[in-house]
Amino acid sequence: MNFSLFPLTPEEVSAIWLSIKVGFWCAGITSIPGVICGWLLAKKNFFGKSLLDGFFHLSLVLPPVVVGYLLLLTFGNQGFLGKWLREMLGISIAFTWKGAVLASAVMGFPLMVRSVRLSMELVEPKLEEAARTLGAGPLWVFFTVTLPLAFPGILVGLILSFARSLGEFGATITFVSNIVGETQTLPLAIYTYTQTPQGDKPALRLVILSLTLAFMALMTSEILAKRVEKLLGR
Predict the structure, then answer these.
(1) What is the 3-state secondary structure (H, E, C) of 90-155?
(2) DSSP codes, 33-63
(3) Cis peptide before 7 (omega within 30 of 0)
(4) Interaxial angle between packed helices 64-75 and 97-121, expressed in degrees from 0 to 180 and rounded to the nearest 10
(5) Segment 159-195, tens digit of pLDDT
(6) Is the pLDDT confidence value at 99 over 60?
(7) HSE (side-chain half, CA atoms, 13 Å) at 113
(8) Which backbone phi and psi does 2 adopt, to 5 degrees?
(9) Mean pLDDT over residues 184-209, rounded?
(10) What separation in angstroms does the CA of 120 have from each of 65, 99, 113, 218?
(11) Run of H or E residues at 229
(12) Distance between CA 18 and CA 185 in Å, rounded?
C-alpha cells in the first residue's frame, strides 16, 4: 500500500485544528474548578467528602456514551438547562464545538482533580502552619505556599486534561454528533474514515498524528513538571 503522511486534506486539517482547540479550551475551563475541588479533597475533612469524591470521579468509570446522553438531556436544545440558555441568552451548546469542549471537560475533569489532589496532599502542612503563625490569612497561605508547591501537579493535570480531550469519542459523538468542520475532532474523523470505502489511508494518517500529539503532550507534561520541581528546589 502506497502511503504518505502529507499532504493532508482540508477535512483532516480541520479535524486536527478542532481537536487542538477543544483540548486547550478543555484544559482552560477545568483549571480553576479542578484546583478548587482538588484542594477541597486534599486539605479539608467534612461530612459527605467520600460522596463528593465519588461524584467528581464518576465520569472516569461511566461509559462515555452515558455521559454524552446525560449532557444531551441537560444541555440539549430541549434539555432543562440547554433550553433556558437558548431562550434567555441565545446560547446553543449541543451540536456545536462548544459542546465538544463541554463533553471533553467532563471526561477530563477527574484527571485534573486527581492530579491536583495528590500534589496538594504532598505539600508539607508545617510550611502552611508556619505561614499562618507569621500572620498570613488562609487566602495568602493558599496563593503563596500551597499553590506554588502544588504547581507541578496542577501542570500535569492540565496537560492530562488536554491529552484526554484528544482521545474523547463516546461522549462527544453522543452529545454533539459528528459534523465536519464543527464537531468532528480527530477520533470522530478516524471513525468516519474507517466506515468509508478507501478510507484506510486517511484513517491511518490521522491515527499516526493522534499518537504524535498525545505523545508530545505527555512528554511536555513530564519535562515541564521536572523543570518546575527543579525551580522549587525539590
Answers:
(1) CCCCCCCHHHHHHHHHHHHHHHHHHHHHHHHHCCCHHHHHHHHHCCCCHHHHHHHHHHHHHHHHHH
(2) HHHHHHHHHHH---TTHHHHHHHHTHHHHS-
(3) yes
(4) 120
(5) 889 989 999 999 999 999 999 989 999 999 999 999 9
(6) yes
(7) 21
(8) -75, 130
(9) 90
(10) 32, 31, 10, 21
(11) helix 200-231
(12) 6
Cα–Cα dist 102/88, whole Å = 20
- Is the pTM for the entire model greater than 0.85? yes
Residue 206 gets the label, from left (phi > 0), alpha (psi -120 to 50) or beta, of: alpha
Amino acid identity for residue 179 in this structure: I
The length of the chain, given as a count of residues? 234
Maximum CA extent, the chain? 70
How far, in whole angstroms, is CA 42 from its chain's centroid? Answer: 20
**Quick check: 117 and 41 in contact, CB under 8 A?**
yes
pLDDT confidence of residue 156: 87
